[in-house]
């Protein structure tokens, strides 16, 4: 089985060094999808360290303020992508990688992830869009995420795992998780499963439009307009629901993915 490990929402002064130490000890490469505003702050050196140790650095928006398909006003989604990319430019992959902020509750993949403005920025910038197919909910269940995550990795040909270096509590189980994957014979790689890359180097695939909300001018002009872009996604299209953590309550931690 192939596994791509990804760590989101950093850099974090405790979590990021811990992750880098554990990965380095085992010679495992990973992707770090960093928040732009954090990457220009006091912990920028951690992003540099990750890059220097062979990990891939991707863009996870400037402020992580919500799914881009729900951002208002016009220009906000563009800024979220481009400001973050500028912040990580000296470390960023080529082609650039962008991971959208997952929709509430709990990182759902649907058309709230992007709006048409964001889609145009990604296309014009030649981005590869990085989704996920293993979401263990380390931030919801810091003591219990590892076993179901291992099970999930065994059921997919190529698992793209989302964890959070921004959550040190959940990282206590990272060493055991890594060793379990090694025991399972996992091949760790820095590629993304095809179903997790709806856009490659600016070229949208057939499912890309399913991630994009069209913002109508009259709605975009009215910043008080509530978000109404949520859509029903059939159960089998939502890989997140299979990985929802025990004890999950809708609304919990929805800012974090
Ligand atoms: Zn996130």
TrEMBL record:
| UniProt cross-references to Pfam families, sorted A to Z | Polysacc_deac_1 (PF01522)
Per UniProt, the keywords (alphabetical) are: Hydrolase, Metal-binding
Looking at the record, the residues that make up the NodB homology domain are 1-189
E.C. code: 3.-.-.-
UniProt xrefs under CDD domains = CE4_NodB_like_6s_7s
Molecular function (Gene Ontology), one example: hydrolase activity
Which organism does this sequence originate in?
Microbacterium insulae
Name of the protein this chain belongs to: Polysaccharide deacetylase family protein
Instruction: Tell me the superkingdom of the source.
Output: Bacteria
């Amino acid at each position: 089985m192939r596994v791509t490990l990804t760590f989101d929402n950093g850099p974090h002064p405790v979590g990021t060094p811990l992750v880098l130490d554990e990965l380095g000890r085992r010679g495992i490469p990973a992707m770090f999808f960093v928040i732009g505003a954090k990457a220009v702050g006091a912990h920028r050196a951690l992003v540099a360290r990750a890059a220097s140790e062979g990990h891939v650095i991707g863009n996870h928006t400037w402020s992580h303020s919500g799914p881009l398909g729900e951002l208002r006003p016009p220009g906000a989604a563009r800024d979220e992508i481009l400001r973050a990319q500028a912040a990580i430019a000296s470390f960023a992959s080529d082609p650039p990688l962008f991971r959208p902020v997952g929709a509430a509750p709990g990182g759902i993949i649907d058309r709230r992830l992007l709006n048409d403005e964001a889609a145009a920025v990604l296309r014009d910038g030649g981005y590869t869009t990085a989704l996920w197919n293993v979401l263990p909910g380390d931030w919801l269940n810091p003591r219990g995420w590892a076993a179901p995550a291992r099970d999930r990795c065994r059921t997919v040909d190529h698992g793209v795992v989302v964890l959070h270096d921004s959550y040190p509590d959940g990282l206590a189980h990272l060493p055991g998780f890594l060793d379990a994957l090694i025991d399972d014979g996992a091949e760790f790689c820095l590629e993304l499963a095809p179903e997790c890359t709806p856009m490659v180097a600016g070229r949208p695939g057939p499912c890309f439009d399913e991630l994009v909300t069209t913002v109508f001018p009259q709605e975009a002009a009215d910043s008080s307009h509530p978000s109404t872009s949520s859509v029903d996604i059939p159960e089998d299209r939502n890989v997140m629901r299979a990985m929802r953590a025990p004890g999950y309550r809708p609304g919990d931690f929805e800012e974090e993915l």
